[in-house]
Amino acid sequence: MSTILLVDDEPELLDLYTEVLELMDHRVLRAHDGREALEIAHARRPDLVVTDWQMPRMSGVELCQRLVQDEDLRDVPIIMHSAATDPHAPGVTAFLSKCSELSEFEEVVNRALTDSGVYPQGPPSHSPYLEWEHEHACSMGQ
After folding, report:
1. Which of 13, 17, 53, 110 is such that its CA lies 20 to 30 A from the CA of 142?
2. φ/ψ of residue 78, rounded to 5
């Protein structure tokens, strides 16, 4: 089972992405900002980090910088998701728009895990309800 650290300050998206990743048979660690994520990463060393770009206390960009500079964490792949257009940050393996399809989110997670030598746990398996939740969150400017 892969361990994925999911970082987002928007509770609705954190809940939605957690549910998708758990349906894919991943263990999910959750953080609400970069500072909390860095503490969790040091304690639990995830197989993958999926982070928002803009967050309070420590942004996703600063989190990426800290992960890349850390000898124990620099090899952990990072996926950044944002409502902004393709923000760049050190160590980012892939970028996803927050309003991309859930199937694309699943595909990018699986690809990042495979490329890093961690075997993805399960095939994409989201429900129509999750698609509706995701579309609703995106239509509200999330």
Report:
1. 110
2. -130, 130
Domain range summary for the chain, segments of one domain joined by +: 3-139
pLDDT at 98: 79
82-89 long-range contacts (CB < 8 A, ≥24 apart) are 82/52, 82/53, 82/54, 83/141, 83/142, 84/53, 84/54, 87/53, 87/60, 87/61, 89/53, 89/60, 89/61, 89/64, 89/65
Spelled out in words, what is the top-level CATH class assigned to the domain 3-139?
alpha beta
> What stretch of H or E contains 66?
helix 60-69
pTM score above 0.85: no
Residue 50: helix, strand or coil by DSSP?
A: strand
pLDDT, averaged in runs of 10, over the chain (142 residues): 95 93 95 96 97 90 94 94 72 85 91 81 51 54 47
